[in-house]
Amino acid sequence: MVSQLTAPAKSDVTPQQPPRTRRRVAPSVGRPGVVWAVPGLVFFALFAIVPMLGVAYLSLTDWNGLGSPQFIGLDNWRRFADDPQIVQAVVLTLVLLAGNVAVQLPVSVLLGVWAAGHQRNRAVLSAIFFLPLLLSTAATAIMWRQLLDPNFGVPAQLAGVFGGDGNFVGTSRGAMIALVVVTSWQFVPFHSLLFQGAARAIPHTLYQAAMIDGAGRVRSFFSITLPQLKNTLVTSGTLMVVGGLTAFDVVLVLTNGGPGTDTTILPFRMYREAFQTYDYGYGSAIALLLLVVATVVSLLLTRLSGYDKMQSTQEGV
Amino acid sequence: MKSNSRLMRRVIAAVGGLGLAVSVSACGSSGTTAAAGGDGEGGGKLNYWTQQDPTDPVLQAAVDSFNAADDADVELQAFASNGYKDKVRAAMGSSEMPGMFFNWGGGSLDDYTSAGLLVDLGEAVQANPELESSFLPSVLEIGKVDGTLVGVPMRGTQPVFIFYNKQVLADAGIEPPATYADLEAAVATLSDQGVTPFAVAGNADSGWTELMWVSYLVDRIGGPEVFERIRSGDASGWQDPAVLQAAEEIRSLVDSGAFGTNFQSVSYGSGGTSTLLSSGKAAMQLMGSWEYATQVADSPEFAAEGLGWVPFPAYEGGKGDPANVVGNPSNYISVTTSADRATAFDFLETTYSEEYVQGLVDAGEVPVTTNAEELLASAPNPDYAQFQYDLVADAPAFTQSWDQALGLDIGTPLITEIQKLFNGQSTPEQFVSAASALQ
Question: What pTM was estimated for this model as a whole?
Fold first, then answer.
């Protein structure tokens, strides 16, 4: 409560010396600087960047795993033009990705929001729903392959009722549907968990305000829950996209790219070229192509959804 | 000054952080010292890699008696069959290369031979002519790459022929087919009865079962020379009319319902084609001789009583001898450049020793040694063993399975093309042009 009028008098006396106030020492005290990130960056550089450069180099060579790689320049990349199956592979990858996202996102959101409630039985049921995620992908695919057998599995029983010959996984459409079903069965629990956590964080005051205004459950779901889950939707979507562009294990075990080449998606094609026919050069070129596609899609996703602006859903609450 | 000391602090922190990071990453790269087995080490350990298999005890017994008799140190290591080929491939050319390993001969050894990793066993034969004369010639041929012997047979032979369900054929009132016309008639009769005439695993991971049909038809129609041309790298071999005709025969078989309508989803083995055969839903299956062991494990009563076998029928007007056989001639053991040559060559003698051959016979295999025939009477199923041995011994030509003979870089896409042919996704002409484009 000292009057401001006396202060100038003091400083009049002292000449040109700078004020001996304590200089603010932030930001280097208390907040982590770049130095803290160095170990993580080195790890990332060693295990992600260096192998990527190695793959880029291999894509310019011809190598079958024995002996040393022979440099052949851009021949592997020119092979893309001669290989009609690559375009088919890209299309199939995108179709499978779209199918997966279209099935997994709505189901995960609904399941996650339901599981975010607080009744006691929801915890038990959530634990049971989580079981598919604990199984390995290979085990899941083998189990489903037997389930979908046309003579001894579920399609055989359905054929007895509805007619037909039980041929499901062997048809192009059936193979795609089977892939979407198996992947969704395995990963919906994971995404539900993300949405469950996010839904629990939504402040109750919003719902209470809506109830006062007369909103029913459906209206509050679409107007409150979904917008509040925006950031989680983007996270979930990005994980699904990245997973869809790199995962081939379900394809390998369930359909092996078949029938013919109808489920030979690009990551599977890369695996087959590099590790089944030992053409590491061409496989590396395909891997780089996948890297470019995945980066572009991820960037698009973050830009279009405004994720990069890091806006909080709780602004104004 | 304050600003200076802050800068100093930052520099020290940066250096310290970098040093920490570098030391953490350096910890993991202590490096493996190259431990080459080397020729010069004489008496050093000789690694013998094989696939996990019911016959492993026979191999282990041979290794143990060899170690005891010759005071050597051979070690047998068995790996799960699914990743075995990849493991061998990754190890070849590195310091972990095995001294001897189990393989499929023929095209599967092409890459290793051109990389100079395999020892020419011709020297072993010169020192010990019995090594060559103890085996059936047609089988020993497949152990050669470009005329150089690189593999010695060490397992039974696995020809491909037709297995049939005796009850189903009896109910339909037909005999197992002896000619192709019989086969087509049988297909018509069985389809009328609602039974799938031939079980084939059309699922994309079992495409090699469809390859067997193509191999036999091409062999019967055009003779073994057609595939010989293809195998030696002559891509025009695919343009031979026999290939187109075989593709057309397959088309007509599929269209006439010989394989049923849902074969594209069926897998091989128990729960798949083998169970179709044993349960009577299918009448016949073209398969390799290992099908017997699968049936014994899956449904022993059917295997003991209801299962019959007959060679692939003759094709009227075809150039191929009806006695020709397609399949896996044997599995082979090869010696690599990292092995102690003297010990390895001595070990190769066990592959035709009486104890070893008797062990294989007892395990249900049909060995390809000249001394095997008299031992077959003690096999678990002597008729079956004798049938296979006669089939192989009398065969003028034994063509190796195409995917093994051609190597994986052509074999894998070829199987995909064959699937498309069976599924109706390509016409016979498209199949021929796609196959020739592979080479």
Answer: 0.81
